[in-house]
Amino acid sequence: MKQYTLLIGGERVAVSSHAPVSNPSNGDIVGYMPLASEAELDRAVDAAAEAFAGWSRMPDEKRAQACRALAEKISEHAEELAQLLTREQGKPLSGLGSRFEIGGALAWTRHTAELSLPVEILQDDNEGRVDLYRKPIGVVGSITPWNWPVMIACWHIIPAIRAGNTIVIKPSPMTPLSTIRLVEIMNEILPAGVVNVVTGENSIGAALSAHPGIAKMIFTGSTETGKKVMASAVATLKRLTLELGGNDAGIVLPDVDPARIAEGLFWGAFINNGQTCAALKRLYVHDSIYDDVCNALVDYAGKIAIGDGLDETNILGPIQNEMQFNKVRELVEDARAKGGRILTGGEPMDRPGYFYPITLIADVDHGFRIVDEEQFGPALPIIRYTDIDEVIARANDNPAGLGGSVWSSDPEKAKHYALQLECGSVWINKHGAIQPNAPFGGVKQSGIGVEFGAEGLKEFTTIQTVLS
Ligand code: NAD
Question: Where do transmembrane segments lie in this chain (predicted)?
Fold first, then answer.
């Protein structure tokens, strides 16, 4: 089985220690991840710092062209990346799986390539002139999670380099191989040192986020780890973008047709098996249509083929890793023990791999772990409500604030309530539908800063004003 290498300063760097990466569908080893030492991390940061001098001074249009060329390169390797992603992450090739993820990576890369940050003239009159320039920050450190590893890597890398920074990325130890391959492909066209990858256990993430040579960290992962990254930033006042955990509420008003919204609700919650930051994680349904919505969701769930992602007939795969599998089991058990009614699923599937069925749980409420905590898996609590103002308050009664949604046949009414939700993105009659031109980020403990679009690009810059 292949031993992967680090990629530092445009060169593949072999190391002496490796760790196996296994396929969550069957336990087969997919490849061996290099375990970088701190010396190799230093080398990567040095290589990125060296490359920064040339890359940051390059004419902006040349960097835009390089990002366009990256999209073409990724596109040429799309199927290879999708196959590797399915084997290490578990998500199917089909449906909203690996090919969809690579398609997303491409869409964001292409969109970001076309963004620019022109000089803004803040004042130009008899009193004087003020110009606002956006300048690159330096070497960016990137840490990514295991749920959408290739797409999130592009969310970090492309705006960072588009704005003139260089980067050292550290993927999750659960899914490092597709990121290594992505960076290898990028290095076929980028100058040496602009994009570097180091891999290893969580400790190498801690070392990266504390590294004095890193000027800015972009981190996507759990709120708990995000707080550690923030603490590490103190010594050198690193700039931070933190995209953290969510516990998104979806609120269904009494005026909907349950059969019509079932598909949207289902994929809002179960995209990538629920292992999505802005998935619908708490569903609040009005008492008058509660049973109809529950039944429509159970019917829809019955149509979904779950299995090994390399089999193209499957549209959901396993949970990605044992820790997450156990967490979902525990939260479902807690709900059952407290009187939650399991409408479908509720027990691990009797087969090898971390397979857990789509699980819908009725008659749950705040105080159940699956409502209060982020489940990040294929289990959805469905909470009954009668009073809309009271349900908004309950939806907001959570430390997370990533996304939310309101479902109604009256879009204006839906918007009225949507604006009362404490979250960074709110959808009407859909959930989690992110797009490259809409800034995305969390409020409260779901993060700091935004990604995507010009607002996201600005996070990879510092402001310099010129006053004359
Ligand atoms: P995690 O926090 O366990 O790990 C994320 C990354 O941090 C991994 O690369 C890991 O190796 C690294 N890491 C671990 N300990 C570290 C430390 N002490 N210092 C620095 N880095 C460290 O998260 P996960 O389980 O991989 O991902 C799931 C979480 O990510 C969920 O909470 C999900 O909601 C969140 N997420 C958020 C977004 C968003 O955009 N807001 C997107 C995807 C996932």
Answer: none
**Whose C-alpha lies nearest to ligand 1, atom 8?**
172
Q: Angle between the 177-186 and 78-89 helix axes, to the nearest 10 degrees?
A: 160
323 Cα to the center of ligand 1, angstroms: 13
DSSP single-letter state for residue 118: P
Backbone φ and ψ for 30, nearest 5 degrees, come out as -90, -35
Predicted pLDDT at 1: 81
- What does the alpha-carbon distance between residue 326 and residue 328 come to, in Å, rounded to a whole number? 5
pLDDT tens profile 339-378: 999 999 999 999 999 999 999 999 999 999 999 999 999 9
Which is the closest atom of ligand 1 to the Cα of 209? 20
Rounded Cα distance, 134 and 126, in Å:
25
Burial class (CB in 10 A: 0-12, 13-18, 19+), 211: buried
- The answer to pTM > 0.90 is yes
Residues 6+ apart with CB under 8 A from 80: 181
Catalytic member of 243, 374, 451, 459:
243
Which atom of ligand 1 is least distant from the CA of 324? 25
Domains identified in the chain and CATH numbers: 6-244+443-467 (3.40.605.10), 248-428 (3.40.309.10)
Report the distance separating Cα 441 and Cα 424, nearest Å: 5
Do the strands 379-385 and 447-448 form a parallel or antiparallel pair, or are they unpaired?
unpaired
Q: Given a cut of 90, is residue 45 above it in pLDDT?
A: yes
Residue type, 369: R
Mutate to test the pocket of ligand 1, among 35, 108, 142, 143 (most ligand atoms within 8 A of CB): 143
Q: Is the pLDDT of residue 56 over 90?
A: yes
Return the SS3 of 310. coil
CB 447 near ligand 1, within 6 Å: yes
Q: Known catalytic residue: 243?
A: yes
